[in-house]
Description:
Layout: H1 2-23, H2 36-44, H3 48-52, E1 57-60, H4 63-78, E2 80-82, E3 88-90, H5 111-118, H6 125-138, H7 147-158, H8 161-165, H9 168-177, E4 182-183, E5 188-191, H10 202-207, E6 219-220, H11 222-242, H12 245-265, E7 267-268, E8 273-274, E9 277-278, H13 301-304, H14 312-315, E10 349-350, E11 353-354, H15 364-380, H16 389-402, E12 404-405, E13 408-409, H17 438-445, E14 455-458, E15 473-481, E16 484-491, E17 502-507, E18 510-515, E19 521-524, E20 550-553, H18 559-563, E21 580-581, E22 591-613, E23 624-631, E24 634-639, E25 649-669, E26 676-683
Antiparallel strand pairs: 1-15, 2-3, 4-5, 5-6, 6-9, 7-8, 10-11, 12-13, 14-19, 15-16, 16-17, 17-18, 20-22, 21-26, 22-25, 22-26, 23-24, 23-25
Amino acid sequence: MIWEDVMRAMRMLLLAGAALASMGAASSPPPSAMDTHAIAAQRFGNDAPWYQDRIPFFESADPKIDAVYYYRWALYRAHQRDLGEEGYISTEFLDDVDWQRHPYASLNDATGFHLGEGRWLNDRRFADDYINFMYGGGNDRHFTDHMADSVWGRYLVDGDRAGALRNLPVMNHIYRLWDDKYDFDKGLYFVEPLLDATEYTVSSIDASGGKDGFRGGDAFRPSVNSYMFANARALSSMAEMAGNKAMAADYAARASAIRQRVLTDLWSEKLTHFIDRHQSRKNAFVTYWDPIRNRELVGYLPWMFDLVPDDAKYAAAWAHLLDPASLAGKAGMRTVEASYEYYMRQYRYLGKDPECQWNGPVWPYQTTQVLHGMANLLDHYKEGGPVTRSAYMRLLRQYAALHYQGNRLDLEEDYHPETGKPIVGLDRSHHYFHSGFNDLIMTGLVGIRPRADDVLEVNPLLPQSGDPQALAWFRVQDVPYHGHKVAVTWDADGQHYRRGKGLSIEVDGKEVARRDTLSRIEVPVTRAAAPAITHPINRAVQLVRGQFPMGSASSNDDVENVHDAIDGRIWFFPELPNGWSSAPSPASAPAQQWYAIDLGKPIDLARAELAFFADGKGFAVPQAYRLQAWVDGDWRDIAAPRGGPVANGITDVRWPKLRTGKVRLLFTQPQGKAIRLAEFKLFEE
Length: 685
């Protein structure tokens, strides 16, 4: 161990020396920091305080990428559901759907993306709570996932060893449960496409004889096998870190075996692509172990997890992604190539509205996965086939464009590959969190490649100046990494920031490396303790209607309407109503209204958070308000702030701690307007 420590120290010294020697001593001062307060106010309005100390701030020469970046943080914030004592989880849909895990509204298929985005927050609570929830019984294996790999990915950013290992026994248990989808003869995992979160694929449609494809069509898929490979590799790394060498060796062997089987059995020499093989044993239309007949976008998932060797034979598959006759739509990546017999045939409807299918439509879910795979290919593969940095940035911009509905940002479920218009477009589809984007910006465009050792590696995947997809400048700051705050700046000619041209890195406000050109930089970063996590508990939340805590209101007292103000959800998007909406006041005069919470038992309280939605039309914030508590058989004022609360943000109200079982909000609503109380939270501290 002493020799290993010496070698590690020598490596750090060599890295530090190389950084200074090849880049020149970083003598110029770092670029001026962005005005994060102004940016937060511009992007988030009255809700800016939530973001101010939490998110990394980013700017670039492409205003559309910037706008989507901040929209994605608003999307992340909107999908943080407060469960009270169980903490926060990330949801996929803003409102309830039938197939979620009730009453939490959790789904596990997109958890990897949720954790991938959340690992870049300076407030580590959201990812931490979510991991603990999912491994505390929340992961019902409804869908396939790469959750263990995402826990490891979070550790690579925050360096929190205890946090990574806390749920290791449960991770091990859940991995073994997947034996029910493992073919011990073939050495591969199989899954019904619907339970791979991708209904209506080639395997499921063909297994129905082209008549349907929602259910059935079990197949050995590149997706589930890549996930299980990645999870096994992550479990091996975590077991090694925990000192369990036997477990580490077992999972390393499992990962190696899956890799070999995927390369041997799921690679199609005919299609030069990773493909499904049918697993259905008794089916009139398909035969067990036969390969599917067309390429699908899912064939690129092995690169997302570095399963594929650095070999030109495999890299040739990427030509199909760039081919308009195959997987390249005008507006996005097709989920199956255009030559498939049932390409874009619509089978399923909700009433007259089309429902979700994966037989051609563009899905942000797989688009994210493919862009991660492409970034890996560009970052550390020598054999990249036809993939270039210019192609990567073009497809990243293409993906960013899908977030726009005209001039409005609203990511939906799936899109037409030629027009870029939403296909499903149901009420549930608005602001859909089934994908990633900011993790792509951090690890791809900016090029921060998180590592387990004490090294910060940065390799922006931008093409050189002069390329139509190049970026002349960008900066990201307040990026958490191994207990530090990191900033990365690119200024091609030095004219934007006027602090010298090239790529520079700062750690805790000090420039530590600089290079004139776009290329990889590695600098030593001594690991520091990750910021502590605080867990204030919302005592007012209730997930089950009709149980305590329980809301009541002076108007519009429908059970669902009243409950929505204490259901742990906060968002201010106008497309989907959220919260209790009062009856409007008369046009002639203001009206008095109230909303009360019965906690069911006395508890100590000292603070409330009020979230009001306003749209400049029918909904406005109260003109005045006060809070009351039930004390000695009567309502007594506990806080009467001057003026009204903020619109589309959080109003924090405090009072001397008291013990009570009921709290009431009284307010005056403007004449002719209604009030929408998006959420009402109560805290002990």
